[in-house]
Amino acid sequence: MLPQIHKILYATDLSDPAKHALSYALSIAKQYQADLMLLHVIPDWARNISLSSGLDFATIYNEDAWLKIKDDVLRVSMKHAKERIESTYKNYKQELEAAGIATSVHVQTGHPVKTILQFANQADLIVMGTYGHSKLGSIFAGSVAQGVISKSTKPVLVVHLEKDGTEAPL
């Protein structure tokens, strides 16, 4: 018996390879009439900066001020990430919903691999791009795709950016 795909998790870091992978996630969702969850994980930048710099910003700024700075930056970052995801797939949202395919956008903060794997518990397939992080992101996160592939109990479709650096038309 062939596996059933009812829900697809599309994990994005908002890079060009991730946009390229979106076209595959959309195509598979349409073919299988599968619901599509779009997920972006914002790494804990404050913790990473503190660790890499060796500074305890909560002590430097006082804990209340540091928490406010972190909360403000996180809130703005999450809002912008959600807007970018929605604008990337907005041309397809209506078509997908007309075909009875539910879509949902999720922006979370935390460790990218762990968060993707938590969301994967709700999915039958994970779709993501490779070479996806910006230079700054790769310093903090390493290879998210490799981490997901090695730890996932669900099938993972990893889509590479085309050799000439172009992406699939959206």
TrEMBL record:
Belongs to the universal stress protein A family. This is Nucleotide-binding universal stress protein, UspA family. PANTHER family: STRESS RESPONSE PROTEIN NHAX, UNIVERSAL STRESS PROTEIN UP12. SUPFAM superfamilies: Adenine nucleotide alpha hydrolases-like (SSF52402). InterPro entries: Rossmann-like_a/b/a_fold, Universal_stress_UspA, UspA. Residues 6-160 form the UspA domain. Pfam families: Usp (PF00582). It comes from Halodesulfovibrio marinisediminis DSM 17456.
